[in-house]
Amino acid sequence: MKFISIALIVANVLFSIQGFKDLVFFNKYKFSVLAVQRGEKYRLFSSGFLHADYMHLGFNMFALYLFSETVLNYFSPLQYLIIYGLSLLAGNYLSLLIHKSESYYTAVGASGAVTGIVYASIVLFPDMSLYIFPLPIAIKGYVFGIGYLFYSIYGMKNQVGNIGHTAHLGGAVAGYVLSIVFMPSVLQVHSLQTLLLAVPIVVLIVLQKKNLFQ
Fold first, then answer.
1. CB of 130 within 8 A of CB of 141?
2. Which residues cross the membrane (predicted)?
């Protein structure tokens, strides 16, 4: 693991622990549709370093730890940071667009940023083998990526669980686009997988075109 990914994990842990201890701090920096609409744009970024509890924090940081190495093997630390930061912002911005009429909507977590890193690693190495509990066999990375985004679309539309599905989708879109921008050769080397990974993104745009373009 490179220093930069460890530094991000440490920043998330320290910021989140402060939020666990201080409710005023937590409420000041969490994502809130109403607060952002009032002009507190910093929440689009700061909320990505807060988490609801230790399990939420641990799951996100474990996923970041697992998938960061693949991205850092292909990209520079600066490119990695750009993917992380823009995926975080894209996840929260998409949440703002989709939930703009829900002034009560709030969220925290690095899920958008982490999903961006996960999706970027899949674009770069789509044939990676992943073991997903409780499946007894490994599945290809691109199959997992497509399935995960379709589940996120379903979860967003049906409000499944206390999970920021919208942030996952926004982060994945950023991770997908930036990976291709930074390494266009993936369109030649992994043409079919790269195109298939775009399918749920196109479906999202079609389903949410009113929220996205109004």
1. yes
2. 6-24, 44-66, 78-97, 104-125, 131-151, 163-183, 189-207
Q: For residue 10, what pLDDT is reported?
A: 96
Integer CA distances (angstroms), 107 to 34, 110, 170, 211, in order: 12, 10, 14, 19
Q: What is the separation of C-alpha 169 from the centre of its chain, rounded to a whole number of angstroms?
A: 7
Q: Is the previous residue joined to 77 through a cis bond, with omega within 30 degrees of 0?
A: no
Handedness of CA 27, 31, 36, 41 (dihedral sign): positive
CB atoms within 10 A of CB 26: 18
| In the block, residue with structure tokens 């991770």 | 175
Q: What range does the domain containing 119 cover?
A: 3-213
Domain count, the chain: 1
Cβ partners under 8 Å of residue 63, min gap 6: 114, 118
Q: For residue 196, what is the domain's CATH number?
A: 1.20.1540.10
Query: Whole-model pTM?
Result: 0.92
Helix (H, G, I), strand (E, B) or coil at 110: coil
pLDDT at 214: 64
Mean pLDDT by 10 residues, the chain (214 residues): 89 96 95 94 95 91 93 94 96 90 89 95 92 79 89 78 77 96 94 92 81 68
Phi/psi for 158 (5° steps) reads -110, 5
Give CA–CA dist 190/152, Å, rounded. 24
Q: Is 32 exposed, middle or buried (0-12, 13-18, 19+ CB in 10 A)?
A: buried
CB atoms within 10 A of CB 132: 12
